[in-house]
Amino acid sequence: METVGVRALKAQLSRYIGKAKAGETIIITAHGQEVAELIPISKERRAVQHLATEHRLKWNGKKPVGCTGVTVEGKTIAETVLEERR
User: Fold this and answer.
1) Is the same domain home to 33 and 48?
2) Does residue 67 or residue 9 have the better pLDDT?
3) How far is CA 74 from CA 1, 30, 33, 38, in A?
4) What sign has the CA pseudo-torsion 74, 43, 82, 71?
5) Tens of pLDDT, residues 30-70
6) In the prediction, which pLDDT does 13 show?
7) What stretches of 3-86 show up as alpha helix (H) in DSSP?
8) Same domain, 8 and 33
9) The domain containing residue 26 runs over which residues?
10) Same structural domain for residues 19 and 49?
11) Pair 63, 81: CB distance under 8 Å
12) How many folded domains does the chain comprise?
């Protein structure tokens, strides 16, 4: 896990987004204190987005509606949605 200050993050944003896309978590600091994380998109979120794109469910960023019988390893869709709200 890499740590980067806000100034360096702004100067090299594309680089750090590439690292997150590759699966790495980046800790962002401001004045030496941890303030945020840059994390990759979860498999569960990608699955929900894919189902919404295929019109198999409706999703407005809250609880998905209209999808039954879909299983994803790991967290449930509801847990993922709640986590994304934070």
Assistant:
1) no
2) 9
3) 22, 33, 31, 21
4) negative
5) 999 999 999 998 887 888 788 888 877 777 777 777 766 66
6) 96
7) 6-11, 13-21, 43-53, 77-85
8) yes
9) 2-38
10) no
11) yes
12) 2
DSSP per position, 67-78 = --S---SSS-HH
- Residue carrying the six token digits 């979860």: 42
Q: Are residues 17 and 32 in the same domain?
A: yes
List the structure tokens of 57: 């469910």
Q: Are residues 47 and 80 in the same domain?
A: yes
Q: Are strands 26-30 and 33-38 parallel, antiparallel or unpaired?
A: antiparallel
pTM higher than 0.90: no
The pLDDT score that the predictor gives to residue 67 is 67
**What token pair was written down for 58?**
């409706």
The Cα 86–Cα 71 span in angstroms is: 23
Give the amino acid at 50: H
For residues 49 and 34, membership in a common domain is answered with no
81 — pLDDT class (breaks 50, 70, 90):
confident
Q: What is the pLDDT of residue 71?
A: 64
At what angle are helices 43-53 and 77-85 packed, to 10 degrees? 100
